[in-house]
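FAQ: What does the model actually see?

It sees only this:
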Amino acid sequence: MVFQFDDLKKKTILLFISAPLVGAGIGFSFMFFAIKNQPTLGETPWRTYLNIGASDESMLQKAIRTRVGIYALPKEEVIYFMASTDSDGELLTSDQRYEVSGIAPATKIWSITLYDKDFFLSDNALNRHHFNASSLNVEQGKPFSFVVSSTPEVGNWLPAPQKGNFALCYRFYLPPASAFPINESSLPKIKKL
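And it is asked to produce this:
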């Protein structure tokens, strides 16, 4: 057998190039799977990790926070919930209309913000990206509702992107101790109209 230095060199270079790419591909696949499979609260579309931003946050949760860029603070300051599906489990998409309805939570401040498929704010003519107690003129413990649609609506309308999927982020800022444990009945419904 004759030793071929050129063959060994080509295989070594190929190995050094392909191994990090394969590793990165596996890592990103795992991270995207984890983002899509965050823990839910019962039969709701809302997903959360309550220890996002905490000192005991796992490496996976840090990766999700880094990728999505929405989560940042510990649960003592804000609780984050994400929904990429409606209450029936169907993906939120711009070719549908939705009603988001619930009871205003007992927190200092809360908001529901719409993000496009890449987790960026969606451009729209109204420059409206969220609703909160102030913009809906609702007090703690009182019902609220608004419509999410890519076409203009009368009343409380949150513009969706012109095409593609989107997600909603529900934030409770400075939640009182009485906010825990959080159950599914305290989270808004997202119904297709």
